[in-house]
C-alpha cells in the first residue's frame, strides 16, 4: 500500500474507480430538524472557546491567566471562571497553537486548537497525504492534521491527565474551528483511546480528516458535534474524489452569515457523505469564505493581521 493509502496501480482510471468504490453510500436523510434549545445554547457556548483560541493572549499566555477575547466574541467564556493551564504556539513545524484551560463554572477541561493563521498552518492544511494514525485497522488520516496533533500531544496529554486526576468530575471537551477543528477531531479520537473515552468534540467548519474506516471509527466513539455552515468551502476539502470523508453526524447550519442561529436553522444529518448538507451546496468557492468565518458569531474575529511564518 502506498503512503496515500491506495494500492499501487499503473492504471489511473482503475485507481480512481477503486477509490470511488471505497466510499460509503451517500445518505439522503436527517435524524431531526430542530435541535433542542438547550443543545443550541451548548453549541453557541463551545464555539466561543474556538473563537478564544484565535486570540494571541490566550495561546501565548502565562499559566493561571484568564481567557479573554479582544474582539468581544467570547462573552460567555469571559464571564466564566477560567484558568489557562497550558498554552502552545510557534514551537512546531506545523505551528499548532491553542491552549488547555480549566472552566470551573462549567466544570470542564477544555483543549482548544486555533485555526489557520500562519504560513506553516496553511502548509498543514494543504498536505492532503494519508498517514496511518494507528487508531484502528485500515484507518488513515490526513498527514498535516495528524502531524499537527502529535507534535503537541505529549505535553497536552500530560496536562490533561494531571488535571483530570485533580478534577475527576469535570468533563473533557476538545474544540476548534477550521484547521483547529480538523486537529481537534483527530485529537479527540486519540484522547478517547488514552483514558478519556467520554471526551466531547465540538468541531466548527472542519475539513475532512479521514478515510472511511477512520471516519466510521471516530463516529462510533460518539460525543461528536461537527458543524458546517451553508456553502462554507472548507468542509468540502479535501475532495471526496481523494478518498476523504467526514465524521458523522453533521450539524448543518442553514441561517445566513451574520445572522443569529435558531433551533430550526440546524439540521442533523447522518452519514460520512451526505448531500443534504454542506457537501450538496456545490464545489468549493472562494467567494463563500464569509460563511466559513461565521459560526454562531465571527469565530476568527481575534485573528491577527498579516500571514506570519
TrEMBL record:
Residues 110-240 form the Fungal lipase-type domain. Residues 7-16 have a biased composition (Basic and acidic residues). Pfam families: Lipase3_N (PF03893), Lipase_3 (PF01764). Keywords: Hydrolase, Serine esterase, Signal. It catalyses: feruloyl-polysaccharide + H2O = ferulate + polysaccharide. InterPro entries: AB_hydrolase_fold, AB_hydrolase_lip/est, Fungal_lipase-type, Mono/diacylglycerol_lipase_N. One of its GO terms (molecular function) is feruloyl esterase activity. GO terms for biological process: lipid catabolic process. It comes from the Eukaryota. Its EC number is 3.1.1.73. It is an enzyme of class 3 (hydrolase). Residues 1-21 are annotated as: Disordered. Residues 34-86 form the Mono-/di-acylglycerol lipase N-terminal domain. Belongs to the AB hydrolase superfamily. FaeA family. This is feruloyl esterase. The lineage of its organism: Eukaryota, Fungi, Dikarya, Ascomycota, Pezizomycotina.
